[in-house]
Amino acid sequence: MSFSVNRARAVGSSVLASTLRGWRGASASRSVEQPAQLPELYDREGCAHCRFVREALTELNLDVRIVPVPLGGTRYRQQLMDVSGSDQVPFLVDPNSGEKIGGSDAIIEYLYRQYGARAVPPQLRATNANVIKSKLATVVRGSLGLEVRPSKPVAQDMILYSFEASPYSRLVRERLCELEIPYKLVNIGKQQLADVGPATFRLHVGEYKPLPNTKRSAMLEEHGNVQVPYLIDPNLNKDLFESEDILQYLNQNYAG
Ligand SMILES: N[C@@H](CCC(=O)N[C@@H](CS)C(=O)NCC(=O)O)C(=O)O
């Protein structure tokens, strides 16, 4: 009983966090072009400014490698210091252009110029009002995704299908950050009305069809379903849908 109450609380507070941010990072542009190499984002899930960058990445439909730097975490901190000269997140390294950029406004400006060719939406700028809403989103989640938890290191990056505003995916991203597990973030935001809604209750009649030649259609073809979160762990050769199962899997295998 208390388990399901905890679960309802977790999902409810995650819905509230997305609502506080006006569901930025739910929809994605139709472009499917990914740069040749994966940009790297030094990130902390519960950090207000990192959230703006992840919202931009979903909306631009870009995938990145997430390098988690939770408070108190040591696994990637030195690497961040070496590349940026500080331990501040967010920090973006784009091997496609050679750019190394710190601070959400500068990173987002760069991403929209380089990959969006359009203006930055005002809701993604680090104004006082947006920062307060983003901080509140972390507060309602009980500050999960901010601080390190003891963990075992992974040999290979994981892969997570997600989109920023997805309440269920947030629960998994928080844990990956706390456990300092790096991963390829595959963003599959909503691209049409038929994509809207939970995977079991979409806003459309009949068989669900993602837009052709998109990451969503590729996911359906490769994995038989379009639902997030979806985690692939090449270390233990395991892949899972369902946030609850993923959290349990991460705890059992990687929490130290
Ligand atoms: N019970 C699943 C629910 C997952 C779910 O419904 N995810 C939504 C996004 S939050 C989804 O995949 N919607 C379908 C879509 O985006 O096409 C879980 O806990 O992981």
Question: Could you characterize the architecture of this molecule?
Answer:
The structure is a single chain. The protein has 8 helices and 8 strands, in the order H-E-H-E-H-E-E-H-H-E-H-E-H-E-E-H. With 256 residues, the chain is of the alpha+beta class. The protein has a single domain, classed as Glutaredoxin. It has an 8-stranded mixed beta sheet, sandwiched between helices. Helix 2 links the parallel strand 1 and strand 2. The protein is globular.
The radius of gyration is 17 Å
Pattern of helices and strands: HEHEHEEHHEHEHEEH
Q: What's the average pLDDT?
A: 95
> What's the arrangement of strands in the largest beta sheet?
4-3-1-2-6-5-7-8
Q: What portion of residues is helical?
A: 25-40%
The CATH superfamily label reads: Glutaredoxin
Q: Report the principal-axis shape.
A: globular
Which structural category do the helix and sheet elements fall into? Answer: alpha+beta
Percent of sequence in beta strands: 5-15%
Tell how many strands the DSSP assignment holds. 8
Residue stretches low in confidence (pLDDT < 50, at least 5 long) are none
Number of helical stretches of at least 4 residues:
8
Report the CATH C-level class. Alpha Beta
Question: What small molecules are bound in this structure?
Answer: glutathione
